[in-house]
Write a structure and sequence with these properties.
Pfam families: UDPGT. It contains 13 helices and ten strands. The chain is an alpha/beta fold. Bound molecules: 2-acetamido-2-deoxy-beta-D-glucopyranose (2 copies). The site of one 2-acetamido-2-deoxy-beta-D-glucopyranose has 3 residues, from α4.
Length: 367
Amino acid sequence: MSAERKIFVLCLLVQQFLLLRGAKILTVSFVGGSHYMLMDKISRILQSNGHEVKMFSHFVDLSSDVKNQDVPYSHIVGKTEEKYVQETLRSFRGNITEFFSGRDSLHFNFAIVDQMSHQCKMIFNQSSIINSLKVEAFDIAVIDASNPCTFLLMEKIGKPFIAFFPTYSVNAGQVGIPSPLSYVPFLGTRLTDQMDFFQRVKNVLVYLLFHMAVNEKISSMFNDVIEENFPEGSKPSLSELYKKAELWIYNSDFAIDFPHPLLPHVIYAGGLLSEAPMHVSPELEDFISESGQAGFIIVCFGSMIPSYPVIEMNEGLAKLSQKVIWRYKQSDWPKEVKLAPNVKLMDWIPQNDLLGENLHFIYYYVI
Ligand SMILES: *[C@@H]1O[C@H](CO)[C@@H](O)[C@H](O)[C@H]1NC(C)=O
Ligand SMILES: *[C@@H]1O[C@H](CO)[C@@H](O)[C@H](O)[C@H]1NC(C)=O
């Protein structure tokens, strides 16, 4: 072997075995459904890029879409007792029904957070898992930031972390992203970036109300967990913990958000779950093509909300010139209601394939 070649081989060896080192990464998923699907995808991507990934998950599966599957990373599943599972399902369905029959969405959101704080107590009660995560030498963690408990877990085990938020930047205020109220519409106001004077006044009032009433209340729901699990003198507050993230990643895209300043610790990475579209079934293809130029509409309320009161929506959809594919569990459809002729119900929609690359959608975040 020539000297040059020897040096080349040596360099290759150094590069392969000494310089390249995958990180040890913890991913944390405390919300099921599509949230879990996203954390699963992130874990797979990291694992296939040479990192050693371990997921810690704990949730009650509210949708039956997420099947137990073989995963290429290691996975610790927190314990959920049957009584807790039943109670969570009952309470979630009860609140969803109330929401769809007109109860305000704030009430619904408080109910979800209340559920999360209860779940958090159960998670912190599983001390053998928490202790094992504490001693394991993770380089970094990626957490589902929509459940505040993930931040408390990070504080408990003392690891640096990246916060992944499954929607657009609705929590900008907590993250330190500037949101000038003159052109950034606040969550739930249904305003746009073009506001007249009175709309701006509304935007400011809703913002103040939210920060004085809602934020405080949500934080206070975790006081018990903090009280029980952190020693005197080092009790964290959630608002501080949100600012401890090394990075915030949003499952969003500039195309579906209003203009908004961002800071260097914020990245938009929408569309993690979208794949190259495949052909849909001939039956669906026929249904869609019947509406011709008018196009078709998909109605779907997310993985956790399969069925809900229908009469008004059915009447509304009947007035459209488009064909409508509505994700609705067919066996739950009330027999006495006649389905609008332009509507097709499906238990599951191949959304990725139907929407393909021509996506126009209305995204309405519930609060
Ligand atoms: C809504 O959620 C709360 C909190 O989890 C629960 O106490 C309440 O019973 C639920 N409401 C219904 C109608 O199930
Ligand atoms: C925590 O664990 C203890 C002992 O196993 C049990 O008695 C208690 O009910 C648990 N608390 C929660 C909130 O699950």
